[in-house]
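hey m, so remember when u said the tokens were messed up on ur end? i reran from scratch. heres the input so u can diff it against urs
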Amino acid sequence: MSEVQENSANLVKIDVTPDKFIGANLRIRLTDSRLLTGILTVIDPFGNILLSNVIETSVDRLNPKNFHSRDIGLVSVPRETIVNIKVDIKTHKNIFATRIEVLR
């Protein structure tokens, strides 16, 4: 369950559980510079992520100005290989915008 709190500095703290992101389109940057774009399917208890409909984008090692993309389907992403995760704007608005409106 999400909880919205406002502190004395008028900063908003929103507690969001990972299950709110299931079904969201994510972009995950990995430690080897690859970018995975796909739909969040599962997060296991250890923080590993399962993405479906994944497209992998990577830099060409011979010519860094070129990129390679390929469809790889279902992918398990180990937690320790994740550098950052970005969520699509639709999911972000659904999770955060409606809760901030409550405080206004």
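this time it looks ok to me. Residues 99-104 have pLDDT under 50 and may be disordered. if urs says something different then somethings off w ur setup not the seq
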